[in-house]
Structure formats: structure tokens, C-alpha cells
């Protein structure tokens, strides 16, 4: 089932508010080393059952990544994906 326009607008507004909270310092982001390939592998493993159930396919093609190990807030990276 597709999301309604209202739900999409609500998600967009919530995302903008989250960015505003980060910029104003009301949300503290952690700095930790993590692996981008590991984040994508975890994401794929998490959504694979839904993809299979819906008889869909997912292709991720990541090219020319210079630094796979990065520092940042892995939880927020997962949230954004």
C-alpha cells in the first residue's frame, strides 16, 4: 500500500525538525567509528524479509567509496537510510 500524501508530508516535516534540533544542539550526535559496508549489510538484512514477501528486488550499487570506515553517529546514518 502506498503512503498517503499526508503521511509523506508529516515524515518530511519531522525530518526537517530533526535537522533543526541537531543544528540547534538539542540532539547530541555521537562520534564513533563505524563501517559503511556494515551499515548497508545490516540494512539489507533487516528489510530483506519484506522485500521477499512482496516479491520485489533491491539493488544497491555503491561505487568509488574512498573511505569505508568513517566517524559519526551510526544510529542517525541508519535512520536516514
| Percentage of β-strand residues | 5-15%
Low-confidence stretches: none
DSSP summary: helix tally: 3
Helix content: 55-70%
Cα gyration radius (Å): 16 Å
SS-based class: mainly alpha
Spatial ordering of strands, largest sheet: 1-2
Considering the chains and any ligands shown, give keywords for the structure.
81 residues; mainly alpha; two-stranded antiparallel sheet; 56% helix
Tell me about this structure.
- The protein is mostly helical.
- The protein has helices spanning 5-24, 36-53, 74-80; strands at 32-35, 69-72.
- Strands 1-2 form a two-stranded antiparallel sheet.
- It is flat.
- The protein starts with a helix and ends with a helix.
- The model has no long low-confidence stretch (mean pLDDT 82).
Outline the secondary-structure elements.
Layout: H1 5-24, E1 32-35, H2 36-53, E2 69-72, H3 74-80
Write a brief structural summary:
The protein is built from 3 helices and 2 strands, in the order H-E-H-E-H. The protein has 81 residues and is mainly alpha-helical.
Amino acid at each position: 500500500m502506498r503512503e498517503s500524501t499526508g503521511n509523506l508530508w508529516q515524515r518530511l516535516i519531522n525530518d526537517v525538525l530533526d535537522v533543526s534540533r541537531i543544528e540547534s544542539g538539542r540532539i547530541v550526535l555521537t562520534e564513533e567509528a563505524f563501517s559503511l559496508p556494515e551499515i548497508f549489510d545490516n540494512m539489507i538484512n533487516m528489510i530483506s524479509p519484506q522485500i521477499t514477501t512482496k516479491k520485489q528486488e533491491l539493488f544497491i550499487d555503491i561505487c568509488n567509496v574512498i573511505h569505508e570506515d568513517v566517524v559519526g553517529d551510526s544510529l542517525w546514518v541508519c535512520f536516514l537510510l
